[in-house]
Amino acid sequence: MKSSVLIVDDLAFVRMMIKDILHKYGISVCGEAANGVEAIKKYNELKPDIVLLDITMPVMNGLEALQRIIIADPHAKVIMCSALGQQKLIVAAIKAGAKDFIVKPFKEERLISAIKKVLEKH
After folding, report:
1. pLDDT per residue as tens digits for the range 39-63
2. Residue 1: per-residue pLDDT
3. Is 7 helix (H, G, I), strand (E, B) or coil?
4. What per-residue string of b and e applies to 4-31 under the rule 16 or more CB within 10 Å gives b?
5. How many separate domains does the chain show?
6. Which domain holds residue 9?
7. Among candidates 95, 45, 42, which has minimal Cα distance to 67?
8. Degrees (nearest 5) of the Cα angle 70, 92, 45?
9. What pLDDT, on a 0 to 100 scale, did the predictor assign at position 31?
10. How many whole angstroms separate alpha carbon 53 and alpha carbon 62?
11. Is residue 68 within a helix (H) or strand (E), and if so which, with residue range?
């Protein structure tokens, strides 16, 4: 699967963990961002196939970043990442255009299946 992914999470160790999983499956990571403002900038620069976007981040949260990415590119493929207990935010993210969501701590298989599903569907 040759696809480029932008990883957005305020925690560097989470970005590293996701990157390691994706590399193991031959999925290319084209960039990383630590907040929503960086995510929008990197999305516009890199035009990744998929964005893995954390909901809870400083500066600009994932929901607002998602909305701005979708306005700029209605075909953007964004998978939201959230902690348990954020169901209302997940529902809002899906309504705003997210293609899927993963609940942290997520399993490797769930991450890969979400990416494959979004790439096949859209």
Report:
1. 999 999 999 999 999 998 888 899 9
2. 47
3. strand
4. bbbbbbbeeebbebbbebbeeeebebbb
5. 1
6. 4-121
7. 95
8. 25
9. 96
10. 6
11. helix 62-72
Angle between helices 62-72 and 36-46 (to 10 degrees): 30
Cα–Cα distance for residue pair 69/74, rounded to 1 Å: 8
Two structure tokens written together for 65? 């970043």
Look-up: residue for tokens 């293609």?
Answer: 99
List C-alpha distances in Å: 116 to 12, 55, 57: 24, 21, 25
What CATH number corresponds to the domain at position 74? Answer: 3.40.50.2300
Please return the burial class of 95, using the count of CB atoms within 10 Å of its CB with bins 0-12, 13-18 and 19+.
Answer: exposed
Q: Do residues 4 and 49 lie in contact, with contact meaning Cβ atoms separated by under 8 Å?
A: yes
Of the candidates 39, 52, 61, which has an alpha carbon nearest to the alpha carbon of residue 111?
52
